[in-house]
Amino acid sequence: MINRFIITIAEHKLLVTTASDFVQAYIRVKYGARPLPFTASPEADLIVTMEEGYGAPFENYQVDVNATSEQTVYKRTDYLIEMDHAYREIRIYVHDDFALKHAMVNLYSAYITRQQWGLLIHSSCLLEQNRAYLFAGHSGAGKSTVVQLSWPRPILSDEATIVKISEHGVVIYNSPFRSDTELPDIPGTYPLTAIQILRQSPDNRRLRMGGMEGLQSVLHRVFYWAHDPEETKKVFRMCKLLAEQVPVYEMYFQKNNTFWEEIS
């Protein structure tokens, strides 16, 4: 049976139509999707149709991008995304729930980047006294470890952090793009106070990175699939604006919660 749902992510609303039972169950749990009658005509930033039965199980993270004057297509072994030129009407075809999770990250990152609204950054982010602290690093650097060691601090993200960037400041939204934690009810926005690039170490210390070094460290952690020079320039400009407003540090930390003494 075909049903419609509204999903709210940060400031954006997605109107989702799907006949798939597993898709309906997944978006209800992971994104707090609310069912809508077909008579309703809500405003939405993105109009998304989702279908299952595509492709094969996950093989690797390689995403092929093909852009024309009419649409942009993102293709991986286990999912396919077709976006119109305005990035407003989208069709998503997925193999399973793992594919759907990654397709949603791809979709939302592409949308907010194109709008120059902000970035989706591969990182964890936690609250300390109503201020957000972002922790990034290569795979295995300790993003999940930091989350586990930071209890009872609220978790804004454990995998993909939603960062809104403007000349007026940088704020963080509660992110539904999660790996190991459930989506908590944390409304509103929180100022991003610092970015930590993680390095596991026998001692705790935090070193301020230079402007270009900090910018490049952030740039390498953005969820972005390059396919157009103008879109790449948008990502670079937003990373530059982010690094100009928020200090970036190398964070050497022990595997215990004492590293917070270096931060707050």
Short structural summary:
The chain has 264 residues and is α+β, with helices and mostly antiparallel strands.
How would you describe this protein?
With 264 residues, this protein is α+β, with helices and mostly antiparallel strands. It has 2 domains: 3-115, no CATH class; 119-262, Phosphoenolpyruvate Carboxykinase, domain 3 (Alpha-Beta Complex). The protein is 23% helix and 38% strand. The chain contains 5 helices and 16 strands. The strands form 2 sheets. It has an 8-stranded mixed beta sheet with strand order 3-1-2-4-8-7-6-5, with helices on one face. The model has no long low-confidence stretch (mean pLDDT 92). This is SynChlorMet cassette protein ScmC.
Task: Quickly list its features.
16 strands, Phosphoenolpyruvate Carboxykinase, domain 3, globular, single chain, SynChlorMet cassette protein ScmC, eight-stranded mixed β-sheet, five-stranded mixed beta barrel, alpha+beta, 264 residues
